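User: Some background: our group keeps a shared notebook of sequences we're curious about, and every so often someone picks one and asks for a predicted structure to add to the entry. Today it's my turn. The entry only has the sequence so far, pasted here. Could you supply the structure so I can complete it?
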Amino acid sequence: MKKKNLISWEDPRWGVVHAVTDSYTQNGALAVMLVLADGEPLTDLSKNLPGSSMLPPGHFYAKTYSENEEIAKYALKSGWFEEVGPGVESGFVRLPVWRLLDKRKEAV
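Assistant: Of course. Here's the predicted structure to add to the notebook entry:
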């Protein structure tokens, strides 16, 4: 899959943030990377875990802990994502299942 800049929102700390989607080469699961307006990589919003490829299209395990805690909150508030499942435990953290939405709140 070709990288695609689908969405953008304003983050109080980082300014304009873009979400770029791709697929993980290992299993084809949805990958969501966040980049700044100037194209500088910011963080990966998705995590590729065992079972990631079994999630429905448009769904991914969201990294909402550690350095992603704040940015994940604003990503969710942007209206482009929806938490749809409790997710899985990985080590000492839980990774919820998120779904990528379009502006009409329909699954992508």
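Suggested note for the entry: Residues 4-100 form one domain. The beta strands are 4-11, 15-23, 30-36, 41-44, 46-47, 59-62, 81-90, 93-100.
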